[in-house]
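Re: guanosine-5'-diphosphate structure - here you go.
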Amino acid sequence: MQKKVMLIGSSTCGKTTLSQRINGMKIEYQKTQTIGVINNIIDTPGEYLENRQLYKGIIVTAADSDLIMFLQDATDERFRFSPGQSRFFSVPVIGVVSKTDIATPEQIKDAVELLELAGCEKVFLTSAVTGEGVRELLDYIENTDFEEE
Ligand SMILES: Nc1nc2c(ncn2[C@@H]2O[C@H](COP(=O)(O)OP(=O)(O)O)[C@@H](O)[C@H]2O)c(=O)[nH]1
Ligand SMILES: [Mg+2]
């Protein structure tokens, strides 16, 4: 059974590029069919977080996923997730820092801290351009049993 992954992040944080990279790598992984499919990509510009109705919609859709990924662009000055945000979801939430290839170590460290503060149980550092960290992310999705907690 394929795992359903929902990707949440602000516009331009790299959701489309990362999902393309993951889909490309899935082809190399042919031995298995269980790699997470990214079936849901949610842009969260301010309006989503500020509009209760829209946000409720995300929560409801998310309940149908096996895993949620919060994606934060390391080079984005604005942090897009609030402390404890993961607790609104009924499925596990992990953090993904994007664009590590063009970020400073300080920016990466800040993004990791933000995602941990948002309640992500694990944080991966990735670049969809160089592919750095994407294999580790896929291995984690592949090898983890995301039972209801
Ligand atoms: N340097 C770098 N640029 C990236 C990376 N991921 C995405 N981008 C660039 O960031 C911009 C927005 O990416 P996109 O995937 O469209 O973001 P989305 O709006 O979240 O889907 C594009 O110009 C991408 O080429 C990355 O890992 N490294
Ligand atoms: Mg996109």
